[in-house]
User: Which sequence fits this backbone?
Protein backbone atom coordinates (compact mmCIF):
# COMPACT_ATOMS: atom_id res chain seq x y z
CA UNK A 1 0.00 0.00 0.00
CA UNK A 2 1.29 3.52 -0.88
CA UNK A 3 2.39 5.75 1.96
CA UNK A 4 -0.38 8.11 2.97
CA UNK A 5 2.11 10.87 3.76
CA UNK A 6 5.80 11.12 3.05
CA UNK A 7 7.77 14.14 4.25
CA UNK A 8 11.44 14.63 3.46
CA UNK A 9 13.61 17.28 5.13
CA UNK A 10 10.78 19.69 5.75
CA UNK A 11 12.06 22.92 7.23
CA UNK A 12 10.47 26.19 8.21
CA UNK A 13 12.00 29.07 10.13
CA UNK A 14 10.07 31.93 11.72
CA UNK A 15 12.16 35.05 12.32
CA UNK A 16 14.91 32.97 13.95
CA UNK A 17 12.62 32.49 17.00
CA UNK A 18 11.32 29.08 15.96
CA UNK A 19 12.49 26.48 13.53
CA UNK A 20 10.59 23.45 12.38
CA UNK A 21 12.76 20.53 11.39
CA UNK A 22 14.33 19.38 9.29
CA UNK A 23 11.60 16.76 9.65
CA UNK A 24 11.40 13.53 7.69
CA UNK A 25 8.67 11.01 8.30
CA UNK A 26 6.34 8.66 6.58
CA UNK A 27 2.88 7.52 7.53
CA UNK A 28 1.79 4.23 5.94
CA UNK A 29 -1.68 3.84 4.50
CA UNK A 30 -4.32 2.29 6.72
CA UNK A 31 -3.18 3.63 10.08
CA UNK A 32 -3.86 6.37 12.61
CA UNK A 33 -0.75 8.43 13.33
CA UNK A 34 -0.92 10.51 16.49
CA UNK A 35 1.03 13.76 16.55
CA UNK A 36 1.79 14.84 20.10
CA UNK A 37 3.85 17.54 21.77
CA UNK A 38 3.40 20.57 23.99
CA UNK A 39 2.13 23.94 22.76
CA UNK A 40 4.61 25.50 20.37
CA UNK A 41 6.32 22.17 19.65
CA UNK A 42 5.63 22.52 15.93
CA UNK A 43 2.61 20.27 15.43
CA UNK A 44 0.41 22.91 13.82
CA UNK A 45 3.36 24.27 11.82
CA UNK A 46 3.92 20.77 10.46
CA UNK A 47 0.25 20.42 9.51
CA UNK A 48 0.11 23.90 7.99
CA UNK A 49 3.24 23.18 5.94
CA UNK A 50 1.72 19.92 4.79
CA UNK A 51 -1.41 21.69 3.58
CA UNK A 52 0.32 24.71 2.04
CA UNK A 53 -1.18 27.13 4.57
CA UNK A 54 2.37 28.24 5.23
CA UNK A 55 5.25 27.91 2.79
CA UNK A 56 8.06 25.67 4.03
CA UNK A 57 11.61 26.87 3.36
CA UNK A 58 12.55 23.47 1.99
CA UNK A 59 11.49 19.86 1.85
CA UNK A 60 9.31 17.53 -0.15
CA UNK A 61 5.84 16.35 0.68
CA UNK A 62 3.86 13.65 -1.03
CA UNK A 63 0.39 12.30 -0.37
CA UNK A 64 -0.43 8.78 -1.58
CA UNK A 65 2.65 8.92 -3.79
CA UNK A 66 1.75 12.24 -5.44
CA UNK A 67 4.02 15.25 -5.09
CA UNK A 68 2.19 17.97 -3.18
CA UNK A 69 3.82 20.79 -5.16
CA UNK A 70 3.11 19.29 -8.56
CA UNK A 71 -0.33 17.76 -7.97
CA UNK A 72 -1.60 19.93 -5.14
CA UNK A 73 -5.25 19.95 -6.21
CA UNK A 74 -5.37 16.18 -6.69
CA UNK A 75 -3.61 15.57 -3.36
CA UNK A 76 -6.12 17.79 -1.58
CA UNK A 77 -9.07 15.98 -3.16
CA UNK A 78 -7.95 12.99 -1.09
CA UNK A 79 -7.64 14.93 2.17
CA UNK A 80 -10.38 15.67 4.68
CA UNK A 81 -9.64 18.47 7.12
CA UNK A 82 -10.59 19.37 10.64
CA UNK A 83 -8.42 22.30 11.64
CA UNK A 84 -8.27 24.08 14.96
CA UNK A 85 -10.66 27.08 14.76
CA UNK A 86 -10.42 27.42 11.00
CA UNK A 87 -13.66 26.91 9.15
CA UNK A 88 -16.45 28.62 7.23
CA UNK A 89 -17.78 31.96 8.54
CA UNK A 90 -20.34 31.44 11.26
CA UNK A 91 -23.16 33.25 9.49
CA UNK A 92 -23.44 30.32 7.10
CA UNK A 93 -25.63 27.27 7.58
CA UNK A 94 -24.64 23.62 6.97
CA UNK A 95 -26.76 23.82 3.81
CA UNK A 96 -24.70 26.80 2.55
CA UNK A 97 -21.50 24.95 3.36
CA UNK A 98 -22.64 21.85 1.48
CA UNK A 99 -23.57 23.98 -1.50
CA UNK A 100 -20.12 25.63 -1.52
CA UNK A 101 -18.14 22.43 -0.98
CA UNK A 102 -20.17 20.65 -3.67
CA UNK A 103 -18.55 22.99 -6.17
CA UNK A 104 -15.08 22.52 -4.69
CA UNK A 105 -14.69 18.75 -4.24
CA UNK A 106 -15.23 16.48 -7.23
CA UNK A 107 -16.40 13.62 -4.99
CA UNK A 108 -18.70 15.62 -2.74
CA UNK A 109 -21.55 13.39 -1.58
CA UNK A 110 -24.66 15.32 -0.52
CA UNK A 111 -26.45 12.22 0.71
CA UNK A 112 -23.50 11.27 2.93
CA UNK A 113 -23.26 14.82 4.31
CA UNK A 114 -26.98 14.83 5.12
CA UNK A 115 -26.61 11.42 6.76
CA UNK A 116 -23.83 12.74 9.02
CA UNK A 117 -25.96 15.77 9.92
CA UNK A 118 -28.81 13.43 10.79
CA UNK A 119 -26.57 11.09 12.80
CA UNK A 120 -25.17 14.06 14.72
CA UNK A 121 -28.64 15.68 15.08
CA UNK A 122 -27.43 18.88 13.42
CA UNK A 123 -29.97 21.22 11.77
CA UNK A 124 -29.04 22.08 8.20
CA UNK A 125 -30.72 25.49 8.06
CA UNK A 126 -29.40 27.18 11.19
CA UNK A 127 -26.33 29.42 11.12
CA UNK A 128 -23.18 27.98 12.67
CA UNK A 129 -23.12 30.82 15.20
CA UNK A 130 -26.10 29.21 16.96
CA UNK A 131 -24.22 25.90 17.38
CA UNK A 132 -22.42 24.76 20.52
CA UNK A 133 -18.73 23.94 20.32
CA UNK A 134 -19.48 20.23 20.07
CA UNK A 135 -21.99 20.80 17.26
CA UNK A 136 -19.51 22.93 15.33
CA UNK A 137 -16.88 20.23 15.61
CA UNK A 138 -19.34 17.59 14.42
CA UNK A 139 -20.23 19.81 11.46
CA UNK A 140 -16.54 20.23 10.59
CA UNK A 141 -16.09 16.46 10.77
CA UNK A 142 -19.18 15.89 8.58
CA UNK A 143 -17.80 18.34 5.99
CA UNK A 144 -14.37 16.69 6.17
CA UNK A 145 -15.78 13.23 5.51
CA UNK A 146 -18.45 13.99 2.92
CA UNK A 147 -16.14 14.04 -0.09
CA UNK A 148 -14.83 10.51 0.53
CA UNK A 149 -11.26 11.44 1.50
CA UNK A 150 -8.64 8.77 1.92
CA UNK A 151 -6.66 10.78 4.46
CA UNK A 152 -8.00 12.76 7.39
CA UNK A 153 -5.83 15.51 8.85
CA UNK A 154 -7.12 16.48 12.26
CA UNK A 155 -5.69 19.30 14.34
CA UNK A 156 -7.07 19.19 17.89
CA UNK A 157 -10.41 17.73 16.77
CA UNK A 158 -11.50 16.79 20.28
CA UNK A 159 -10.25 19.76 22.31
CA UNK A 160 -12.96 21.47 24.33
CA UNK A 161 -15.46 18.65 23.79
CA UNK A 162 -17.21 16.91 26.65
CA UNK A 163 -16.47 13.17 27.13
CA UNK A 164 -19.73 12.06 25.47
CA UNK A 165 -19.19 14.09 22.30
CA UNK A 166 -15.51 13.12 22.30
CA UNK A 167 -16.46 9.48 22.38
CA UNK A 168 -18.93 9.97 19.49
CA UNK A 169 -16.29 11.76 17.46
CA UNK A 170 -13.67 9.10 18.18
CA UNK A 171 -16.12 6.43 17.02
CA UNK A 172 -16.51 8.23 13.69
CA UNK A 173 -12.74 8.22 13.24
CA UNK A 174 -12.56 4.53 14.10
CA UNK A 175 -15.30 3.78 11.55
CA UNK A 176 -13.36 5.78 8.95
CA UNK A 177 -10.18 3.81 9.57
CA UNK A 178 -12.01 0.48 9.12
CA UNK A 179 -11.37 0.93 5.40
CA UNK A 180 -7.76 -0.14 5.14
CA UNK A 181 -7.05 2.40 2.41
CA UNK A 182 -7.84 5.19 4.85
CA UNK A 183 -5.37 6.95 7.12
CA UNK A 184 -5.54 9.63 9.80
CA UNK A 185 -2.98 12.14 11.01
CA UNK A 186 -4.30 13.18 14.40
CA UNK A 187 -2.69 16.05 16.29
CA UNK A 188 -3.83 16.43 19.89
CA UNK A 189 -2.99 17.39 23.43
CA UNK A 190 -5.40 14.77 24.71
CA UNK A 191 -3.00 11.85 24.56
CA UNK A 192 -5.49 9.42 26.09
CA UNK A 193 -7.47 9.60 22.82
CA UNK A 194 -4.45 8.23 20.99
CA UNK A 195 -3.71 5.46 23.47
CA UNK A 196 -6.87 3.69 22.36
CA UNK A 197 -6.67 4.17 18.64
CA UNK A 198 -3.29 5.35 17.28
CA UNK A 199 -0.98 2.90 15.53
CA UNK A 200 1.97 5.26 15.26
CA UNK A 201 3.10 8.05 17.57
CA UNK A 202 4.97 11.11 16.31
CA UNK A 203 6.30 13.16 19.17
CA UNK A 204 7.48 16.70 18.47
CA UNK A 205 9.49 18.92 20.75
CA UNK A 206 11.12 22.26 19.95
CA UNK A 207 10.29 21.94 16.26
CA UNK A 208 11.97 18.53 15.98
CA UNK A 209 10.48 15.09 15.60
CA UNK A 210 12.03 13.45 18.66
CA UNK A 211 10.18 10.14 18.59
CA UNK A 212 8.54 8.19 15.79
CA UNK A 213 7.47 4.72 16.90
CA UNK A 214 4.50 2.43 16.90
CA UNK A 215 2.13 2.86 19.83
CA UNK A 216 2.72 -0.74 20.92
CA UNK A 217 6.50 -0.27 20.93
CA UNK A 218 6.05 2.71 23.21
CA UNK A 219 3.34 1.47 25.55
CA UNK A 220 4.67 -2.11 25.77
CA UNK A 221 8.35 -1.21 25.69
CA UNK A 222 8.91 2.05 27.54
CA UNK A 223 8.54 2.27 31.29
CA UNK A 224 9.10 4.41 34.35
CA UNK A 225 11.59 3.19 36.87
CA UNK A 226 10.80 4.56 40.31
CA UNK A 227 13.66 4.71 42.75
CA UNK A 228 15.25 6.64 45.60
CA UNK A 229 18.49 8.65 45.53
CA UNK A 230 20.70 5.65 46.42
CA UNK A 231 19.16 3.39 43.78
CA UNK A 232 19.30 6.22 41.25
CA UNK A 233 23.06 6.57 41.77
CA UNK A 234 23.51 2.90 40.77
CA UNK A 235 21.60 3.12 37.50
CA UNK A 236 23.74 3.19 34.36
CA UNK A 237 23.35 6.55 32.66
CA UNK A 238 23.00 4.92 29.23
CA UNK A 239 19.90 3.09 30.49
CA UNK A 240 18.15 6.40 31.15
CA UNK A 241 16.37 8.48 28.53
CA UNK A 242 15.52 11.17 31.07
CA UNK A 243 14.62 11.46 34.72
CA UNK A 244 12.64 13.65 37.05
CA UNK A 245 13.24 14.16 40.76
CA UNK A 246 10.03 14.33 42.77
CA UNK A 247 9.54 15.02 46.44
CA UNK A 248 9.65 11.36 47.51
CA UNK A 249 11.21 9.52 44.58
CA UNK A 250 12.90 9.77 41.22
CA UNK A 251 11.21 8.72 38.00
CA UNK A 252 13.48 7.42 35.28
CA UNK A 253 12.28 6.98 31.73
CA UNK A 254 13.59 3.78 30.15
CA UNK A 255 13.03 2.36 26.68
CA UNK A 256 13.12 -1.36 27.52
CA UNK A 257 10.84 -1.95 30.47
CA UNK A 258 11.29 -5.72 30.73
CA UNK A 259 15.07 -5.68 30.55
CA UNK A 260 15.33 -2.80 33.00
CA UNK A 261 12.99 -4.50 35.47
CA UNK A 262 15.33 -7.51 35.41
CA UNK A 263 18.46 -5.37 35.69
CA UNK A 264 17.16 -3.24 38.58
CA UNK A 265 14.92 -5.60 40.57
CA UNK A 266 14.92 -3.38 43.67
CA UNK A 267 13.25 -0.52 41.80
CA UNK A 268 9.57 -0.30 40.97
CA UNK A 269 8.82 -0.50 37.26
CA UNK A 270 5.60 1.08 36.01
CA UNK A 271 3.99 0.97 32.59
CA UNK A 272 3.89 4.26 30.77
CA UNK A 273 1.17 6.43 29.31
CA UNK A 274 1.73 8.84 26.44
CA UNK A 275 1.20 11.70 28.87
CA UNK A 276 3.97 10.36 31.16
CA UNK A 277 6.21 10.00 28.14
CA UNK A 278 5.55 13.57 27.05
CA UNK A 279 6.14 15.04 30.49
CA UNK A 280 9.32 13.07 31.13
CA UNK A 281 10.76 13.79 27.70
CA UNK A 282 9.96 17.50 27.84
CA UNK A 283 10.39 18.32 31.51
CA UNK A 284 12.77 15.55 32.52
CA UNK A 285 16.49 16.09 32.87
CA UNK A 286 18.82 14.36 30.47
CA UNK A 287 21.35 12.08 32.17
CA UNK A 288 24.92 13.28 32.19
CA UNK A 289 26.85 10.52 30.38
CA UNK A 290 30.22 11.37 31.93
CA UNK A 291 28.95 11.67 35.51
CA UNK B 1 -13.32 26.98 -12.25
CA UNK B 2 -15.64 24.85 -10.11
CA UNK B 3 -13.53 25.53 -7.03
CA UNK B 4 -13.92 29.24 -7.65
CA UNK B 5 -17.69 28.77 -7.92
CA UNK B 6 -17.74 27.18 -4.46
CA UNK B 7 -15.91 30.14 -2.93
CA UNK B 8 -18.15 32.56 -4.82
CA UNK B 9 -21.18 30.81 -3.37
CA UNK B 10 -19.69 31.20 0.09
CA UNK B 11 -19.44 34.99 -0.39
CA UNK B 12 -22.92 35.20 -1.91
CA UNK B 13 -24.40 33.24 1.01
CA UNK B 14 -22.61 35.58 3.39
CA UNK B 15 -24.07 38.59 1.58
CA UNK B 16 -27.49 36.96 1.66
CA UNK B 17 -27.18 36.26 5.39
CA UNK B 18 -26.47 39.92 6.10
CA UNK B 19 -29.01 41.22 3.54
CA UNK B 20 -31.72 41.89 6.12
CA UNK B 21 -29.48 44.06 8.28
CA UNK B 22 -28.08 45.90 5.23
CA UNK B 23 -31.57 46.52 3.84
CA UNK B 24 -32.63 48.05 7.14
CA UNK B 25 -29.62 50.37 7.06
CA UNK B 26 -30.48 51.27 3.47
CA UNK B 27 -34.10 52.11 4.35
CA UNK B 28 -33.05 54.16 7.37
CA UNK B 29 -30.50 56.11 5.31
CA UNK B 30 -33.05 56.79 2.57
CA UNK B 31 -35.61 58.02 5.13
CA UNK B 32 -32.99 60.21 6.77
CA UNK B 33 -31.79 61.81 3.53
CA UNK B 34 -35.31 62.31 2.18
CA UNK B 35 -36.29 63.97 5.45
CA UNK B 36 -33.16 66.11 5.31
CA UNK B 37 -34.13 67.24 1.81
CA UNK B 38 -31.05 65.87 0.08
CA UNK B 39 -30.95 65.76 -3.72
CA UNK B 40 -31.46 62.75 -5.99
CA UNK B 41 -27.72 62.07 -6.09
CA UNK B 42 -27.96 60.47 -2.67
CA UNK B 43 -29.85 57.56 -4.27
CA UNK B 44 -26.77 56.89 -6.33
CA UNK B 45 -24.45 57.03 -3.38
CA UNK B 46 -26.27 54.96 -0.74
CA UNK B 47 -26.61 51.58 -2.54
CA UNK B 48 -23.02 51.87 -3.74
CA UNK B 49 -21.87 52.51 -0.19
CA UNK B 50 -23.96 49.63 1.18
CA UNK B 51 -22.58 47.13 -1.34
CA UNK B 52 -19.04 48.35 -0.80
CA UNK B 53 -19.41 47.83 2.94
CA UNK B 54 -21.08 44.44 2.37
CA UNK B 55 -18.15 43.22 0.28
CA UNK B 56 -15.76 44.42 2.97
CA UNK B 57 -17.80 42.55 5.56
CA UNK B 58 -17.15 39.29 3.67
CA UNK B 59 -13.43 39.90 4.27
CA UNK B 60 -14.16 40.59 7.95
CA UNK B 61 -16.13 37.36 8.39
CA UNK B 62 -13.39 35.41 6.63
CA UNK B 63 -10.74 36.92 8.86
CA UNK B 64 -12.72 36.44 12.07
CA UNK B 65 -13.27 32.74 11.35
CA UNK B 66 -9.78 32.19 9.91
CA UNK B 67 -11.48 31.02 6.75
CA UNK B 68 -8.47 31.87 4.58
CA UNK B 69 -6.34 29.18 6.22
CA UNK B 70 -9.13 26.68 5.60
CA UNK B 71 -9.68 27.93 2.04
CA UNK B 72 -6.05 27.55 0.98
CA UNK B 73 -6.19 23.95 2.22
CA UNK B 74 -8.91 23.19 -0.32
CA UNK B 75 -8.11 22.03 -3.88
CA UNK B 76 -6.78 25.06 -5.82
CA UNK B 77 -7.85 27.17 -2.85
CA UNK B 78 -5.06 29.72 -2.97
CA UNK B 79 -5.78 30.81 -6.55
CA UNK B 80 -9.54 30.62 -6.24
CA UNK B 81 -9.93 32.78 -3.13
CA UNK B 82 -8.72 35.89 -4.99
CA UNK B 83 -10.51 34.98 -8.22
CA UNK B 84 -13.80 34.44 -6.41
CA UNK B 85 -13.53 37.74 -4.54
CA UNK B 86 -12.98 39.73 -7.76
CA UNK B 87 -15.71 37.94 -9.72
CA UNK B 88 -18.23 38.38 -6.91
CA UNK B 89 -17.22 42.03 -6.68
CA UNK B 90 -17.83 42.59 -10.39
CA UNK B 91 -21.11 40.71 -10.21
CA UNK B 92 -22.37 42.58 -7.19
CA UNK B 93 -21.14 45.90 -8.57
CA UNK B 94 -23.08 45.33 -11.79
CA UNK B 95 -26.21 44.42 -9.83
CA UNK B 96 -25.72 47.50 -7.65
CA UNK B 97 -25.32 49.77 -10.65
CA UNK B 98 -28.55 48.43 -12.10
CA UNK B 99 -30.29 48.84 -8.76
CA UNK B 100 -28.95 52.38 -8.56
CA UNK B 101 -30.51 53.23 -11.91
CA UNK B 102 -33.75 51.61 -10.84
CA UNK B 103 -33.87 53.40 -7.49
CA UNK B 104 -32.91 56.73 -9.07
CA UNK B 105 -35.62 56.23 -11.70
CA UNK B 106 -38.26 55.35 -9.13
CA UNK B 107 -37.19 58.32 -7.00
CA UNK B 108 -37.42 60.57 -10.06
CA UNK B 109 -40.96 59.35 -10.71
CA UNK B 110 -41.98 59.72 -7.05
CA UNK B 111 -40.68 63.27 -6.87
CA UNK B 112 -42.46 64.13 -10.09
CA UNK B 113 -39.51 64.87 -12.31
CA UNK B 114 -40.09 61.89 -14.60
CA UNK B 115 -37.59 59.42 -15.95
CA UNK B 116 -34.55 61.30 -17.16
CA UNK B 117 -32.57 58.70 -19.05
CA UNK B 118 -29.38 60.66 -19.53
CA UNK B 119 -29.23 61.57 -15.86
CA UNK B 120 -29.75 57.96 -14.91
CA UNK B 121 -27.01 56.84 -17.26
CA UNK B 122 -24.65 59.29 -15.60
CA UNK B 123 -25.65 57.93 -12.19
CA UNK B 124 -25.09 54.40 -13.45
CA UNK B 125 -21.61 55.12 -14.79
CA UNK B 126 -20.61 57.31 -11.86
CA UNK B 127 -21.65 54.77 -9.23
CA UNK B 128 -19.99 51.91 -11.10
CA UNK B 129 -16.73 53.80 -11.60
CA UNK B 130 -16.45 54.98 -8.01
CA UNK B 131 -17.20 51.54 -6.63
CA UNK B 132 -14.75 49.72 -8.89
CA UNK B 133 -11.93 52.21 -8.40
CA UNK B 134 -12.30 52.02 -4.64
CA UNK B 135 -12.40 48.23 -4.67
CA UNK B 136 -9.47 47.96 -7.06
CA UNK B 137 -7.41 50.07 -4.66
CA UNK B 138 -8.69 48.38 -1.54
CA UNK B 139 -8.41 44.68 -2.34
CA UNK B 140 -4.64 44.29 -2.68
CA UNK B 141 -4.26 46.19 0.60
CA UNK B 142 -6.76 43.90 2.34
CA UNK B 143 -5.08 40.79 0.97
CA UNK B 144 -1.74 42.14 2.14
CA UNK B 145 -2.57 43.63 5.54
CA UNK B 146 -5.95 42.15 6.49
CA UNK B 147 -9.21 44.04 6.76
CA UNK B 148 -8.43 46.29 9.73
CA UNK B 149 -4.98 47.47 8.71
CA UNK B 150 -6.18 47.56 5.09
CA UNK B 151 -8.88 50.10 5.98
CA UNK B 152 -6.27 52.40 7.52
CA UNK B 153 -3.95 51.91 4.55
CA UNK B 154 -6.64 52.83 2.04
CA UNK B 155 -7.48 55.95 4.05
CA UNK B 156 -3.81 56.94 3.97
CA UNK B 157 -3.69 56.18 0.24
CA UNK B 158 -6.77 58.27 -0.54
CA UNK B 159 -5.41 61.18 1.51
CA UNK B 160 -2.04 60.91 -0.24
CA UNK B 161 -3.64 60.89 -3.71
CA UNK B 162 -5.86 63.85 -2.72
CA UNK B 163 -2.85 65.80 -1.47
CA UNK B 164 -0.94 65.01 -4.67
CA UNK B 165 -3.82 66.21 -6.86
CA UNK B 166 -4.12 69.37 -4.77
CA UNK B 167 -0.38 70.06 -5.06
CA UNK B 168 -0.43 69.48 -8.81
CA UNK B 169 -3.40 71.82 -9.21
CA UNK B 170 -1.46 74.53 -7.39
CA UNK B 171 1.57 74.23 -9.67
CA UNK B 172 1.91 76.58 -12.62
CA UNK B 173 3.26 75.58 -16.00
CA UNK B 174 1.82 72.07 -16.07
CA UNK B 175 0.01 71.12 -19.28
CA UNK B 176 -3.76 71.46 -18.83
CA UNK B 177 -6.03 68.60 -19.89
CA UNK B 178 -8.83 69.65 -22.19
CA UNK B 179 -12.02 68.75 -20.32
CA UNK B 180 -13.86 68.57 -23.64
CA UNK B 181 -11.68 65.69 -24.82
CA UNK B 182 -12.38 63.80 -21.58
CA UNK B 183 -16.12 64.38 -22.04
CA UNK B 184 -16.08 63.20 -25.64
CA UNK B 185 -14.08 60.04 -25.02
CA UNK B 186 -15.30 59.25 -21.49
CA UNK B 187 -17.43 56.31 -22.63
CA UNK B 188 -14.36 54.67 -24.20
CA UNK B 189 -11.61 55.78 -21.83
CA UNK B 190 -13.33 55.00 -18.54
CA UNK B 191 -14.16 51.32 -19.22
CA UNK B 192 -10.61 50.83 -20.51
CA UNK B 193 -9.19 52.54 -17.44
CA UNK B 194 -11.39 50.46 -15.13
CA UNK B 195 -10.52 47.25 -16.93
CA UNK B 196 -6.80 48.00 -16.66
CA UNK B 197 -7.11 49.05 -13.02
CA UNK B 198 -9.12 45.97 -12.00
CA UNK B 199 -6.78 43.71 -13.99
CA UNK B 200 -3.72 45.23 -12.32
CA UNK B 201 -5.39 45.06 -8.91
CA UNK B 202 -6.26 41.39 -9.49
CA UNK B 203 -2.71 40.49 -10.53
CA UNK B 204 -1.22 42.28 -7.52
CA UNK B 205 -3.72 40.57 -5.19
CA UNK B 206 -2.93 37.15 -6.67
CA UNK B 207 0.77 37.78 -6.18
CA UNK B 208 0.27 38.91 -2.59
CA UNK B 209 -2.06 36.04 -1.73
CA UNK B 210 0.20 33.49 -3.43
CA UNK B 211 2.92 34.33 -0.92
CA UNK B 212 0.70 34.89 2.09
CA UNK B 213 1.00 32.61 5.11
CA UNK B 214 -1.71 32.03 7.67
Assistant:
Amino acid sequence: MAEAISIQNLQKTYDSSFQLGPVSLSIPGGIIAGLIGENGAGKTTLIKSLLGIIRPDSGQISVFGRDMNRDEAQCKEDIGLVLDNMFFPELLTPRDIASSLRSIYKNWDDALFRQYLKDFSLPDNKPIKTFSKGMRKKLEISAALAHHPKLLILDEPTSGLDPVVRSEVMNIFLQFICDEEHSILFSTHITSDLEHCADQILFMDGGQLVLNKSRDDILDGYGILKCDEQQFALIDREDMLSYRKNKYNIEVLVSDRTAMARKYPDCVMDAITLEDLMILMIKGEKPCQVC
Amino acid sequence: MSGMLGLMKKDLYLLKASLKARSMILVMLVIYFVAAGSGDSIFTFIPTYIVFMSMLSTFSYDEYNQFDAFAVSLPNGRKNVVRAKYVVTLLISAITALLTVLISGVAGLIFGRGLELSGLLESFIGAMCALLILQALFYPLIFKFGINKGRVMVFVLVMAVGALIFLLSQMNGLPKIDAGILDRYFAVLMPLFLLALMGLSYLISQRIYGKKQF
Notes: Chain A has eleven helices and 14 strands. Residues 222-283 of chain A form one domain. The longest helix of chain A spans residues 163-177. Chain A touches chain B at residues 48, 51-55, 72-74, 76-77, 79, 81, 83, 85-93, 96, 99-106, 127 (CB under 8 Å).
